[in-house]
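Exercise (ungraded).
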Amino acid sequence: MNRYLESLALALSALKANLLRSILTTLGIIVGVASVITVVSVMQGFTDSITKQFENMGSNTLLIKPYVPFKERIVGKRARLTISDYEAISRAVDGIDMIIPVVFQAPGQLRYKGEQTSLQYYIGTVAGYDELNNFYPQKGRFLIPSDDTYRRRVVVLGADIRKDLKLPADPAGEYVEFNGQWYKVVGEMEQQDSTLGFSQDNMLIMPFQTAVALLRDKASENMQFMIRVKNVDEVPRVHDQVSRLLRKRHHIGKRDTDDFRIETSEQIKERFESILDAMTYVVAAIVGISLVVGGIGIMNIMLVSVTERTREIGICKALGATRADILIQFLAEAVILCLLGGVIGIAIGYGLGALVGALVPTIPEIVVPVWAILLSLGFSSLIGILFGIVPASKAANLDPIVALHYE
Amino acid sequence: MTAEIIRLEGVSRHYQMGDETIRALDGVDLSIFRNEYVAVIGASGSGKSTLMNILGCLDRPSGGLYRLNDTEVEGLSDSELSAVRNKEIGFIFQSFNLLPRATALQNVIQPLIYAGMSRHERRERAMAALKQVGLEKREGHLPNQLSGGQRQRVAIARALVTNPAIILADEPTGNLDSSTTAEIMALFDKLIESGQTIIIVTHEPEIADHCRRVITISDGRIVGDTGSKGGAA
Ligand SMILES: Nc1ncnc2c1ncn2[C@@H]1O[C@H](COP(=O)(O)OP(=O)(O)OP(=O)(O)O)[C@@H](O)[C@H]1O
Ligand SMILES: [Mg+2]
């Protein structure tokens, strides 16, 4: 074993003698590994934030929303859910622990004592939304049933609003002006994780009926229902029953597709993950190609190196080097070259990822997962062995006399 | 005590060049005993280097029998041959053949690495060998920082560091001037005194005279041999 470790030292000294050439040779590997690390670290950041998002929604929760395939949407078809759909589901479907309506509305202007801010969106919903989404107020209170019954003009603010409007530390009890109407602030929600890097806290929540009163149209494309099923085992049945009910109510023919979509938190997560998976394959293909190209570069330079050092190989054989000694020396050289490329690639990839993170504020924190580093290094070594074996065995099989007489 | 270190019986080495067969060696019989000091002379192209390469296990004969230290070389595998080159033979070349990126000391250490010796022992022995050739102060020099004579002395240190059964030198002073040649020959004399066995290929009559036995080769055959004095003289 000892003698093979010495081969390593010999390989290192050969690489050092041609340092610039060695680094240039590994360019393909550097580019390959750097792109893996960059893409993986950015994607990992996304995945983490998405996963966290949906962990809040329990596995016995269903989300029902209007849905029209993109194809039909561009020819003007629209889908909506209505308040009577909500009431019908509440009445007719068994096994429901809680059902709440949520209406999302487009931006609006919010004012307080001369300060103003543009909301990203606001939500009309009812008590229980906080529990279903595992999203609670940090100050004051959430909506209560009577807010909805009496259509109170009360709001719960998103975590970013107070700063923007310079509200007091406890904003409960203050009045804010929203789209020309006055509302009383009853609470402030906690901070949410950002989705794909977008902060979601520039928003407010008001009672469902209050929000619906503001709507011109009582059926809204932006209305969704959230259902919590009593028993997780019953999720499929409830899913089916809701689906049949809505198809009947919306007069959807046997052959026609739903104009709504029922999703579980699992499905939503899966959808994101399948997009990420597709991206991963594309990246893997690019990386595979660049690593193979890099490997061929390594093989090329190693063949040159073997030819250049033919005489040295002859000398070593005359001194008692076996085939294995020479083979391992040159394989070690190829692997070290590739690992060098891998390490430089990881450093550059990390740098690029951090740069992307710094330049684009909507991208979450950049983390390079350990598996990506290990995989890169493992792959680099594999490429080194794969593409080093030809030059190394060429060196090992040289005839001592021929090698010694090589000019 | 006389021990036969080398025994050749009908050894030949043929090269096929198209239709023509070149008989670089053609039925050579030869015995060399311990502590002999042998010169091999002959015209250019007569087969001296071919003989040395076969003796040094760098090349294999086309036919005949070669026994080195009671081992039949013919039956040896590639890695066994490597081990023989490492342990039994110290080869010295006309063009020195030092590893260019390795220091004098590292060059002398190299065969000990293949011998599987420990780091500490390797260094000790290599330093001792360098001292033997008077180069202990040049251990850190690269070959291109040494004179021709010094390079050849490093090569000699490298050849003798493994304590081989025989030292083979193919025109070791061919690239050196006469005073450096004398230094190198003095070194060989010292090795002989300490019991080493040496075969030198040479074109220089003074060197041949210096040795105790002279073998003359012509056209791949031994045509003259001043005879074995049976080792210890
Ligand atoms: N690889 C080879 N292929 C063909 N013929 C060869 C080869 N090596 C040597 N020979 C031939 O074998 C013969 C002996 O060569 P060798 O090198 O042994 O001569 P030499 O006695 O050492 O000569 P010199 O004194 O010039 O070194 C020569 O005729 C040479 O042309
Ligand atoms: Mg010759």
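Further reading is listed at the end of the chapter. For now, observe: The interface with chain A takes residues 53, 56, 58-59, 78-79, 82-83, 85-87, 91, 93, 97-102, 110-111, 113-116, 118-119, 158, 162 of chain B (CB under 8 Å). The CA atoms of residues 168 and 232 of chain B lie 19 Å apart.
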